[in-house]
Amino acid sequence: MKNISKGIILKAEEMIPVRENQTISKKLVDLYDLHILLMSLDQNTSISPEFYAEERIYFALKGELKFNNERLINNELILFEKNKLFNIEAREKSIFLEIAINLKEEEMKNIDKGQKIKLVDYLDYIDGAIANIDLVSKDDFRVVMMAFDAGEGLKPHKAPGDALVLALEGKAKLLVGDKEVEIESGEQIVFPANVMHNVTAITRFKMLLILSVDK
Fold it and tell me: In a 10 Å sphere around its CB, with 0-12 CB exposed, 13-18 middle and 19+ buried, how is residue 2 labelled?
């Protein structure tokens, strides 16, 4: 991932500004078959209706957006199938992720097209356990929702690609290399590729993980 600081805690407005009457996009991943944009729209701005040749996943980080007839607010996600006409309107100052990727039907897991998902309600906590559910699963790209009971955590490990963690609910302690940081709802961090990291829940904690591996 580029154009985003790695290994430090960030809020949405620290990753991209919202400017009066402007639409701003910043490339995080720009590969042949995958792009991830961080975008901001000022209040009452819009992106005109268009068709796209690949699936588009949108995740709202801040504000209120309208995708055709679906309203998206913080920590909600929606997937549109390829060649589906839709437009984007910002009802207030908004920041969101756009993920464009070609997917086979079997690579779209546990997700309905064109219907928003309120992620904090999508996966239940399990006492004394960690629960996870795949939303998208490809060899080189994954979107995973995770729910940690308080005190539960992952063993330190490395990943072959950068991993964007979006904290949805609660608070957790993170290891990034030899540094420990805390993250809470509304904050984000990128675990750099091939750097040891882990997640340990301080309170009950939910997060969305987006992992991409350069081919």
Answer: exposed
- State the residue for tokens 């209706």: 49
- The stretch 90-116 carries a mean pLDDT of 90
φ, ψ (nearest 5 deg) of residue 106: -75, -10
**Token pair of 14 as six digits:** 């620290």
- Count of residues making up the chain: 215
Model pTM score? 0.93
Question: Residue 20 pLDDT > 90, yes or no?
Answer: yes
Q: Give me the DSSP letters along 102-171.
A: ---GGGB-S--TT--EEGGGTS---TTSEEEEEEEEETTEEEEEEEE-TT-BPPPB--SSEEEEEEEESE
CA 29/CA 25 separation, integer angstroms: 12
Coil vs helix vs strand at 13? helix
How far is Cα 210 from Cα 152, in angstroms, rounded to an integer?
20
Contacts of 143 (CB under 8 A, 6+ apart): 57, 99, 134, 135, 136, 137, 208, 209, 210
What is the identity of the amino acid at 150?
A
